[in-house]
Amino acid sequence: MELLVKNGFVYDPINGVNGEKMDIAIKDGKIVESVNERRARKVDASGMIVMPGGVDIHTHIAGAEVNTGRLLRPEDHFRDFEPKTAITRSGVGCSVPSTFTTGYRYARMGYTTIMNPSMPPLEAKHTHEELNDTPMVDKATYPLLGDWWFVLEYLKDKNLEECARHIAWIMNSTKGYAIKIVNPGGLEAWGFGHNVSSLDDQVPNFCVTPREIIRGLCKVNKLLNLPHTIHVHTNNLGTPGNYITALETMKCVQDLATENKPVIHITHCQFSSFKGDDWRTLESGAEEIANYVNCHSHATLDMGQVIFADTTTMTADGPFQYNLHELSGNKWVNHDVETETSSGIVPFRYKRKSYVHAIQWSIGLELALLIRDPWKIFMTTDHPNAGPFTSYPRIIAWLISKKAREASLKRINLRARNRSLLDSIDRELSFYEIAIMTRAGQAKALGLKNKGHLGVGADADIAVYNVNPERTDSSRKYKTVRKAFKKAAYTIKDGKIVVKNGEIQKHVNGATMWLNVQSSELAEITDDMKRRFREYWTVEYENYPVAENYLGSSNPITVKASV
Ligand SMILES: [Zn+2]
């Protein structure tokens, strides 16, 4: 099982490799120093770009919410389906693809690791069933813990150590990867038809505030030594004027950072960078957010880039989804997961000629271009909320080419165009910076040691794109680049060639990564906890734990907690 990727222009930012021509040697699924050149199978990457496999920090691809989205939208499937081949299974889906199609489409673009960002603990088994069913990529999922009753009670009592042990238990039990917080406090309030609107509002019945939830879980995250930071969908998401909430959310954990390490990830920040008092006066708050992020190093962000397309919005943010349903008049699903979280789903079309949608489109790109350090902002569409993940090559084109941006700017709503900051931004990202925003930075933020780079010992997850960086003026030939990133020349997963010229060559399952958090005092299921499970839920606590053999291919990552 030896493979040699020869002669490519290698972009490996974690190891400081910037477009150098070199060979990458692979043995038994890992990157090694060298292999026997005569014996090894060779991949000729001459004149092509070689990068680590793509990593997606935030993409809704599995679980009850996604599956409900599929049920809600037969029209989404009719116009986009994939027939069965000798290697691949059939599937459907434009904005909410079926599991197999999801895996194939990521692999075709050179992606090898994807993270599913919202899993109600009660629905962990369903989520893992669908992750098992998503081939070609490694994956993980984040349990929703910001409005979980146990957490709210521990935080009310200021009992952080107990809260940490409890979350260690939840992480192990649900086979989760990171602490996800969505509209902290707002989801609990939504259970009573309310919401919260500031970091200092009281959460009904719990005497805690969103600020205390964010800070508390940020401290818990540190006590547990989790590889990723808390992963936060801010309060007031999708509301004009909310850039202030996003700034306050980052500021509220500023003092918890040590050694310039990030302690918070603000996800799909585009949706939290709105300036203005209402939809009519909506403006971009990207400059304010970027100024803050440029001056601080405790926060990372992802874009949540809007794509002008028909898509399906789905978040745990029940009140936001209700507002979107009211605004659009589109069909809507509301879901309450008892004592844990909520969720909502609404189909949505982003239109070029809509002032609001065009401003949103501009905000995402402004954030990515105005934040100077690409290690702080990553490329996502919050799939499928702002657009399907299959649009990533288009975003790459906008980031590397001012001409590509101008071509789109010409076609958007005129008032939005006049207000967009894009005209004044000349920055065009290099392939090195693209490699950071689409794999290296994401892997680093997630604490995935063997991913996002091509150093010795890394997983042999590699993407080869057929574009010559020496001969291609990417600023002018952005369409060539877009095409190359749409169909990888090769995708290599664990040392196996799984995609060639954008076609699937081989089916692999990919593993589910999860955190095996070890705390000094084993988080025990006490009689008191059992009693509370019985009191709070209509199901017994035995329904929660997901056994390791429930995962198709389990890849536990051991974490030693400080509690
Ligand atoms: Zn999301």
How many β strands by DSSP? Answer: 26
Q: What small molecules does the structure contain?
A: zinc ion
What percentage of residues falls in helices of 4 or more residues?
25-40%
What does the largest sheet look like?
9 strands, mixed
Number of helices: 18
Radius of gyration: 22 Å
Give me the oligomer status.
single chain
Bin the strand percentage. Answer: 15-25%
Question: Would you kindly provide a written description of the structure presented here, covering whatever features stand out?
Answer:
The structure is a single chain. The protein has 18 helices and 26 strands. The strands form seven sheets. Strands 1, 2, 3, 4, 5, 21, 22, 23 and 24 form a nine-stranded mixed sheet that branches. A five-stranded parallel sheet has the order 11-12-13-16-20, sandwiched between helices. The chain is globular. The protein is α/β, with parallel strands linked by helices. β1 and β2 form a beta hairpin. The longest helix is centred in the middle third of the chain and has 16 residues, at 355-370. The two termini are 42 Å apart. The mean pLDDT is 95. Zinc ion (ZN) is lined by residues 58, 60, 117, 268, 315, 382, 385.
